[in-house]
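Tutorial sheet, problem 5. The two components below are modelled jointly, 231 residues in total.
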Amino acid sequence: AQKVTQAQTEISVVEKEDVTLDCVYETRDTTYYLFWYKQPPSGELVFLIRRNSFDEQNEISGRYSWNFQKSTSSFNFTITASQVVDSAVYFCALSGLRSGSEKLVFGKGTKLTVNP
Amino acid sequence: EPEVTQTPSHQVTQMGQEVILRCVPISNHLYFYWYRQILGQKVEFLVSFYNNEISEKSEIFDDQFSVERPDGSNFTLKIRSTKLEDSAMYFCASSDLAPDSYEQYFGPGTRLTVT
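Model answer (structure tokens):
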């Protein structure tokens, strides 16, 4: 069975602080994808990144960076120099690559509040 | 940029009534999904649909739920007899499963309130 654990329920930081959101996953699939989505107060799900299981390179996109470590089954997300607009719930998700259905399994989310 | 659309944005219905939530996936996508998010909780998979049939469904997706692709563009989720616990945000998603660009594109959601 697939499972995603986001142990941090809520995090509160002050603007310009760096913050790391943790994600640990479980899967028996040898090929899988990991995702991060942002859900702002307006409710939509905003895609941030996709990573496949064969690519362990870390990725940086502006103030966002992701650290994928297969050895610890983790896919952590860091926001550098946080801003108030980063306040949202962030979901980590996992998808296998079985033919016909590649449902996303989501973690419970981490609510990030960035205070001015 | 192509996007998934959903209507209505908010639906209020009485317990026991039937509701149909509508989605227009991205036009060249072949795989369609419904997810549900009860307020304050995580996003949960309901059902996936490919080649005009259900490919996988969760235990949440019981006989009260059905999905349909009635024409070439719409993808619908029907709840036959709504219950209070069906109140949630329902997200539609679509994907093409191209390995190099695999992503599920989500619609903005329909907030269903059952009273």
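Marking note: Chain B touches chain A at residues 31, 33, 35, 41-45, 48, 50, 55-56, 58, 89, 91, 93, 95, 97, 99, 102-106, 108-109, 111 (CB under 8 Å). Full credit if you identified this.
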